[in-house]
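Researcher: Please predict.
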Amino acid sequence: MNNAGVLSRSCIMEEISKVDKWTGGGLHAQASPGTNTSSPCYQMITIKDGQFTRLYPPLNPTDADRALIPTATITEDGWACDDSTLIELTGDYGDVSIGKIAK
């Protein structure tokens, strides 16, 4: 058995570097973990009567919907995309190294 069943950080990083299109099974807009690139696209969701409900953007947007956030482009699959929403995180986030993962 390769590596005696231990999942290594290097193995995970190597495999993640190959992923260029990922949506978490449709949970979020497409990102590229392999290049550490996030998506500028988003949806605003709320809970109404115990159900997830879309607030923005609507699936069939009108010109008024598009004008609500003029810097956003609404995609055909229901995402609002706006590069101005991306920020670069800088700073000291502590030790984020991963140790040995148990079986």
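Model: The chain has two domains: 1-38, 40-87.
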